[in-house]
Amino acid sequence: MSITVKQLNRLGLIVCAPFLGIFFWLAAANLSITLPDEVFPKVSAASEISLTAADTDKLKSSLDQAKQTAVSTAQSIKKSVALYNQTNENMSQIAKVAAAQSGRPAMIYDRRITRQLGYPAETVQSDNLTAQLFKIKAQNFTGYAMKVKLKSPNAMQMVLGKDNAGQAETTLSAVKRYNAVAGVNAGGFADSGKKRYPLSTTVIDGKYVNGFEPTFKDLFFVGMNEDMELIGGNYHSQNQLDAQKPKFGASFVPVLMKNRVPQPIPDKWQVSPKRAPRTVMANYKDNQLLFLVTDGYNENGNSGATLQEMQLLLTRYGAIDGYNLDGGGSSSLIFNGRVVNKPSDGQLRALPTHFLFFK
Question: Which residue has the higher pLDDT, 54 or 317?
């Protein structure tokens, strides 16, 4: 059996009619529905106040705890700052003690070698150097020792006579011209006509004056390197000397001491002359320099010091290496603007090379 749409609509109206009737009746009657009070729980004003107080107490407790934590943290920070300051102070004291102790061995060494020289007659001290002059009184001669501590590369240099190869001047003249505080004669020389030339290999400001000449016979080169350390000995090639980076230096004969060991003195230099005014250049293990200048009446060999006696002085004074510079009438020692030694010529000799020292 088939059901038409019209029949289906009729069936829906019959089913919904009762409900529609009730809805229209309720709307016309304007009824309201009220729920009883028992449905909702009653909350008194006292209850509301007590809940707020509890929250306040809890907040107050949290704040008190935070305050206590802050106080504790502040105290901890204060202790840390105090500990840090104390540590810094302690480290500063340790650094001062360490600095003082680090220099102590050098002071002890300097005191020991100075004690061997005696009491300084004069001292010149500056940021560049410390130079001390001592008197030597031996059985057969008198002389002088000059100990120099170089503190700057500008404290020492070697100059040519009148700043030109072939020219000559006294060490006093060079000292005055350069406004130096001290001066010592340097290498040997060779005369040619009216010119006086430095002997063999000579270096000024890192440059060879007359080129390099290989060591021959008893000749040696002695000078200072770029680090202001004493260098010297026999050099058979320019590369050999260049490797030591010479800043300046001169040549003469013979080598007196190497590594604290006295060197054999050739027979010729033991008797020609036997005694004479001498100038010796040496060093200590801390790179201080020692110059010895002895007096003699002339170059005849009857007065002054022997080279063996100069070796004995070097050993007594604790030197490491020692080199015999030009002596006789060439020996010159200028200190604090005056001539200290007694030149055997009766006056200072004009020379082609000089070691100068500056305040």
Answer: 317
